[in-house]
Design goal:
The complex is a heterodimer of chains A (394) and B (288). Chain A is of the alpha/beta class and 394 residues long. Helices cover 41% and strands 18% of the residues of chain A. Chain A contains 16 helices and 13 strands. The N terminus of chain A is likely disordered. Classes of the chains: A alpha/beta (394), B mainly alpha (288).
Chain lengths: 394, 288
Amino acid sequence: MTQSQFTRQELLRRGLAGSALLTVPGLLAACGSGGSKAAVTTTGGKQQMAKTLHFSNWTLYIDVNNKTKAHPSLQEFQQKYGTHVDYVEDINDNASYFGKIQGALSRGQSIDRDIVVLTDNDRYLSLMIKKGWAEKLDKAAIPNIKNLVPVQRHPTFDPNREYSLPWQSGMTGIAYNDKLTTPVLSVTDLLENPKLKGKITCLNSMGDALTLVMLANGDDPSKVTDKSFNAAFTRIKKAVDSKQIRQFTGNDYAPSLAKGDLAAAMSWSGDIAQIGNSHIHWNVPKDGGALWTDNMIIPKGGNVYTASVYMNYVYDPAVMGLMEAGDPKKNITGIYYIPPVIGAKEAALKLNPSVANNQLIFPSAKTLSQVHLFDSNALNNQKYLTQWQNLISA
Amino acid sequence: MKWFHRHRGLMPYVLLAPGLAWLAVFFIVPLGFLAYQSLQSGNIDFGYAFTWAWGNYGTAFTDYRSEFVRSIEYAGIATLLALALSYPVAYWIAFRGGRWKNLLLLMIVAPFFVTYLIRTLAWETILSDNGLVVRTLQHLHLVSPGGHVLATGTAVVAGITYNFLPFMALPLYVSLEQIDHRLIEAAEDLYASSWKAFLRVTVPLSLPGVVAGTLLTFIPAAGDFINAQLLGAPQNHMIGNVIQSKFLELTDYPAAAAMSFILMGAIIIAVAAYARAVGTEQLSGTAV
């Protein structure tokens, strides 16, 4: 008995010593800032296309052939340039994707992606550029940049479009289910109509939610002040405390809206087009909605030339037209958000006129005048962010 | 082979080495790193520096006290519910299951072949506003007309209870299954009623299962955030939700790390108090 007890103690002691040995280099590796694996950089001299382009995007965000599940625009790219596109739909929201890649990037390691897509009304896109984690575009390889719509040419986070190019834009507004409620056309109705108590959701993205509420308050969301922030924040908090707001969501409001658990929801235009439920309607709120843009960037270590050639390819109006509108004759579904390319509408019109004439996809100048951008400085204001996160998660 | 004969004393260490290495690399090292991080200050824009920032713990606790309390409360209620629900089931299977025992156990485990997330999402459908459950509750006037169960604390506790039920039921079953039936017969021979025999013989002998089950349920439940996120309103969020948002949304790693340590500490204290109350021998199951 004593023998075995002694052994057990001894064992524990030696075991601890052993684990301590393991711990030291482990800790060093975990805390180490000096990247042991150098980031891959592009080769100078003659530009060559890589064999594979690694592209991370959001779900349901590219043209797809409903039968084969292939992406026609990517197949065509491969035929034209011989580069296979490894297309991965692994971005669900900006924050968690950033959380996933920031460790490697901060150690100077490559994340094995050549293009990733992040949204301008969240802080991470500008953070990537500010921290030097995005490669400069090879503009010589992107002559089609001339097709970029003028409003997108000088965003505050990248004034000369040196690091980023828009993938798609979208609008934030209100969706409602006409079986459960009369039309919900304003933020005031959404947040304060007692008939909707516990039957609505608010978006968890600060830029989207605050833009809508600030417009309803008569404030300018593109120039946020402490006063306008507090006014909007208090109004949303009131709706939380009164249990008017049932939850804060990403795009998971969509199934609840279709099921009837929600009567109305703050929501994104393209999602509603995709639900395709005739009882669910989407509108820009009376006082205005939000406009946001998802942008392609090349994370540090990505292949700049190959990525730039791909960007040039999608900025060809004919290519973008097909990606956007799909082709019903060939059973291809399009993206159904708002393309940033001049001439895409004309190309889309030939393939799928009903999509080309859809206000949510090719909005008229009048619709576009009703949607607003959110102040990019406010997105990086730590005080605002903390207050907002505490509201939605606590 | 000869070498092993000569160094027979080394054998246990050789066998233990993989397990210890595993623990060291995947538990002790990350824990050390987390502790180091919890004492840093700074932010993602300008970087973090180690400054012995004990204040992280203070603010974490004062700012999020209600979420800490709620986590312990929800996890506690869910654990008690799981115990109340699974004890009769485990008892019945162990004593009356007969040749169906294995099939019945499989039925308890069957839903868990489906992933956690899908099971939780299923509760969204089960408790949906126009669903059968809520409408029945409305007819019984347990839920006000037009009221809902989703987005309430009830839904969160129900989700947690369901998701951790097998962790309670299986250890209970194992300890009940091992009970020597002759002990109960002996109690009855000594004029104990079957109720008294249950209380004085079966329950004490099943305590190791109860203890193991409560710990396996309570500990992960206290740190859970999926149920609160999908089934709760913002008012029902638990500390897991705050930690998740601090880590991923705010990239405030020091605060998140400090909160993780506070939660860990709270759980260790709760478990220690519990172990003291029921006796440590129940933890190791030496009473059987």
